[in-house]
Amino acid sequence: MIKLHDKCFKPFISAKEIDAAVSKMAKDLANDLGDEIPVFVGVLNGSFMVVSDFVKKYPKPCEVTFIKLASYEGVKSSEDIQRLIGLTQDLTGRTVVILEDIIDTGKTLQEIHRIFKNEGVKQLLIATLFYKPEAYKKDFKLHYVGIEIPNKFIVGYGLDYDGLGRDMPEVYQIKTTQHMTNLVLFGPPGAGKGTQANFLKEKYNLVHISTGDVFRFNIKNKTALGTLAKSFIDKGELVPDQVTIDMLNAEVEKNTDANGFIFDGFPRTNAQALALDKLMESKDSQINAMIALEVEDEVLVQRLLERGKSSGRADDADESIIRNRIKEYYTKTAILKDYFSAQRKYYGVDGFGSVEAITERLCNAIDKL
Ligand code: AMP
């Protein structure tokens, strides 16, 4: 990730991908133009890099010139296009190819068509390295397009944000979401994740998502998801990954304005951990830490049996189901310690003692992040 002025940008298109797109455009144009010597017209400032690379790759004789137009203020395409340097040579009867770094709304292109209206050129072709179809509002034909991109602000390879970023050989995309803090609260059943999450969500202003709670809500409301989940939960087994992942994604989507999340009971398998990383990436975010409550097995069994007296949870009432949940944890979930340790995100916390003492230990770990 990089920062230019006040904004953050993430890697978007590599120098290699740009090179391949420029090569293809040069080859296609050369094939189509035959022996004709074209005049390539770069639109300054942004196009200086693409023009330079393009003409080096163009396999036949050509001429190069520039016009200078300005249309951007900050990250927004402005209404007014200023013509700073116009055409300086006679192009009557010539094949002119406009070389643009990017076409978004098409306002600059409109100005270009105005400039060439009375020049008597043989043909006017438009070639652009980047194109934002969602933003384009004009009808002018684009004859050659390198890479189509979504309607998000980009910098690099000639494109700037208030003067910075033009020099970078690759392209970066603006990060639009605000900064989030995302924690995975980890530990075996009965470790106290739910109890602690209730304190932490208040203190850090985070949204708490417990997959176990969401399943129980669905069971209570007799939804199709609840009926499916119940058949696994009642045996102390894990609900299948895809069902759980889809549900988690939907829960996150319900909270687009969140400062961040506490994930409680998720991920529980490798596939879920990968899915969570992917989901966070799609939000321009990441998991900051896995905070694990470490508690001995026999303490867990006693805690859960005790909780079963009042929780009304069938999976807390029977010792063999409790032991099966703990077994599921060690066979399928505990490996995630390695997954997060490899990313230097694992923080173990002693989960034995009073609720308050454990909350304090967790806050100490989180405050150091
Ligand atoms: P919990 O409330 O976290 O103890 O979860 C209760 C039960 O819900 C578990 O024993 C599983 O059957 C199911 N469950 C909760 N979270 C997940 C998950 N991430 N993956 C699969 N099953 C889950």
List the helices and strands and how they pair.
Layout: E1 2-4, E2 7-13, H1 15-33, E3 39-44, H2 48-57, E4 63-73, E5 76-85, E6 95-103, H3 107-116, E7 123-131, E8 144-148, E9 154-155, E10 171-174, E11 183-186, H4 193-204, E12 207-210, H5 211-220, H6 224-233, H7 241-253, E13 261-264, H8 270-282, E14 289-294, H9 297-311, H10 314-317, H11 319-333, H12 336-342, E15 346-350, H13 355-367
The structure holds adenosine monophosphate.
Write up this protein.
- With 369 residues, this protein is α/β, with parallel strands linked by helices.
- It is elongated, with a radius of gyration of 29 Å.
- Helices cover 41% and strands 24% of the residues.
- It has helices spanning 15-33, 48-57, 107-116, 193-204, 211-220, 224-233, 241-253, 270-282, 297-311, 314-317, 319-333, 336-342, 355-367; strands at 2-4, 7-13, 39-44, 63-73, 76-85, 95-103, 123-131, 144-148, 154-155, 171-174, 183-186, 207-210, 261-264, 289-294, 346-350.
- The strands form three sheets. A six-stranded mixed β-sheet has the order 5-4-3-6-7-8, with helices on both faces. Strands 12-13-11-14-15 form a five-stranded parallel β-sheet, sandwiched between helices.
- The chain has two domains: 2-174, Rossmann fold (3-Layer(aba) Sandwich), CATH 3.40.50.2020; 183-367, Rossmann fold (3-Layer(aba) Sandwich), CATH 3.40.50.
- The chain has 13 helices and 15 strands.
- Helix 7 (241-253) runs parallel beside helix 8 (270-282) and helix 9 (297-311) crosses helix 11 (319-333).
- Strand 3 (39-44), helix 2 (48-57) and strand 4 form a beta-alpha-beta unit.
- Bound molecules: adenosine monophosphate.
- Adenosine monophosphate binds at residues 189, 211-212, 215, 232-233, 236-239, 244, 265-266, 268, 272, 315, 325.
